[in-house]
Amino acid sequence: MTFNIRKTIKASSEAILALIKTLSRYEQLEDEATAQIDNVINTLFYGHPKVFASLLKIEGQIASFASYLYNYFTFLCKHSIHIEDIYVYEELRPRSISK
User: Fold this and answer.
1) Residue 90, SS3 per DSSP
2) What is the predicted pLDDT for the residue at 41?
3) What is the pLDDT of residues 41-76, one digit of tens each?
4) What 3-state DSSP class applies to 19?
5) What CA–CA distances, in Å, run from 45 to 9, 16, 49?
6) Closest alpha carbon to 64 in 10, 29, 12
7) What pLDDT score was predicted for residue 82?
8) What is the DSSP string of 24-61?
9) Distances (CA, A) of 55 to 3, 19, 34, 52, 75
10) Residue 25 and residue 4: Cα distance in Å, rounded?
11) Which domains can be identified in the chain, with CATH numbers?
């Protein structure tokens, strides 16, 4: 099995939106998922983004995404990453790619 994890690029915006909508259905929160393609593009790719996303491809097929942001712990003077969401398409979960 070949896989590739990479930061998203603007050309992946439609795929990201599809994953967001699929995640909202899975979480039974479709009414709260009001994101549109322009929201994805504006928040991930313009100006100084505050949130980021990565895609996992297995054998060239998008299988998963993760959205994340950076934190800073003042008392420790250390950065960290907060993972907001990870979603793996249900049909690909039996392949144990989330391990």
Assistant:
1) helix
2) 97
3) 999 999 999 999 999 998 888 999 999 999 999 999
4) helix
5) 8, 12, 6
6) 12
7) 96
8) HHHTT-GGG----HHHHHHHHHSSS-S-EEEEEEETTE
9) 10, 10, 21, 10, 32
10) 26
11) 3-92 (3.40.630.30)
Query: Which residue, 63, 16, 70, is CA-closest to 44?
Result: 16
Amino acid letter, residue 77: C
Structure tokens at 11: 């050309």
Structure tokens of 90? 């249900």
In angstroms, the CA 14 to CA 29 distance is: 20
Q: Is 40 left (phi over 0), alpha (psi -120 to 50) or beta?
A: alpha
